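=== Structure Prediction Worksheet ===
Name of assembly: unnamed complex
Input type: mixed (protein and possibly other molecules)
Chain count: two
Listed entries:
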Amino acid sequence: MKLELDEHGHLDSLLHQWEPKYKLVGLMGLILAFSFVQDPRLLPAMLAITLALYALSRLPLSFLIARLRYPGFFLLIVAILLPFLSGSTVLLRVGPLALRQEGCLDLLLIVSKFVSILTLSLILFGTAPFLDIIKAMRSLGLPLVLADMTLLTYRYIYEIGDDLERMKTAMGLRGFHARYLGGRVLRVLASLAGSVLVRSYERSERVYKAMVLRGYGQPTRPSEEPRSRFRDLAWLFAFLLLAAGFIAAEIVLRQGQG
Amino acid sequence: MHIPDGILPAAVCFGGYATTGAITWYSLRKINQKDDPREGIPKASLLTAAFFVASWIHIPIPPTSVHLVLNGLLGVVLGYYAFPAILIGLFFQAVMFQHGGLTTLGVNATMMGMPALLAYYLFRLRNVLGRKGDRLGRKDDRLGDRKDRPYQALTGIFGFLAGAGGLGIAALIAVALLITTIPTHLDAEAERASIYALTLAHVPLMVIEGAFTALVVLFLQRVSPELLGD
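=== Predicted Assembly ===
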């Protein structure tokens, strides 16, 4: 199960060139503004901007589709339930089922926001190496403990995942197959989970010693922050303006309705 | 049980980030009170990765299977590192698997992490209730020795409570949040009924999660008791 976060971090596009610190602030601003939207009239603009940014990022379409597949299951449930359960204005009646207008609008709103926010977060994490994004978060005030933990966790997830796969294969070869829920099956699976924890714990002690030998915990020379270019700031300004525009439009439209 | 992007109103997302900020601050303060806070970082990080991986283990419930949340167990093992660990785990779930989301990261972290901290406090009661003499004598005793049994039973019971409680509280928060804040046009009576129904539907899962946690905790006590802070 290899799902590298930054497999397209090496590409070259305007969004790739944007300094990660400003990109983080700009895109998060836009994401939060999108989550603020409740009026269906803003959805076309939101989707258009999302698509334009994705095209600008030069990330392959297959990347987006592959990432949308998993949460698609959840969307399907919402899509099946909402139009029939929510609201009072009936658009269409088929036997005992009634398609309701409010439910359809709710569905449209939830799906559009979901797709837009997810696409923007893919752009954010797909257009820069992961290490650079953590550095950017650190320079924006992410506590040291969290930054170190995030990087170390990222470093070891796949290795521990491989450990689990190996142990599962070994269990299978020795005749264990979890086909039903019973006391023995649960006990064996609990021992498997426990073994993953114990192995990781023992490995962490070796990792810590190796890190100390390489100078972990010693004061380091502050790395030089890259100088902000005018273009980075201009992009940031444009994104924040766009985000503010969405929030203002939402407020105006809400007041117009009220 | 992660709430995805686009569902919750912005105000709830901000609220989630505010509570997550506060609990993270509290956890980090507790962590920084240690002599060398950096010493625990590799342990907590690798265990975070291990919990992330252990949640891929599927429990068969024919004709389907479920995966466990393990937030109660995480609280028991990681203590004050549990909340940052859950925050980081959920962050990776959101950006790697699109499970959960960036705007709902705060809400999800509070929903999973607060019960984990409560599970940690609950599990510590085991040491208060376990008789001191038992605990001191335990290391010299052979496993399964009579003297050791009450302590083992206590570990199992508190493991169960931590696991079942961790999931139960998280499910209650999730269901309540989803039903009261989704911008749908359901009436209040239907909302309340669905909250009760969906929470009750989690009871069998709580039992499985509790039993699994108790078994893992007993395994750890046998194999590597220092992981439980013994």
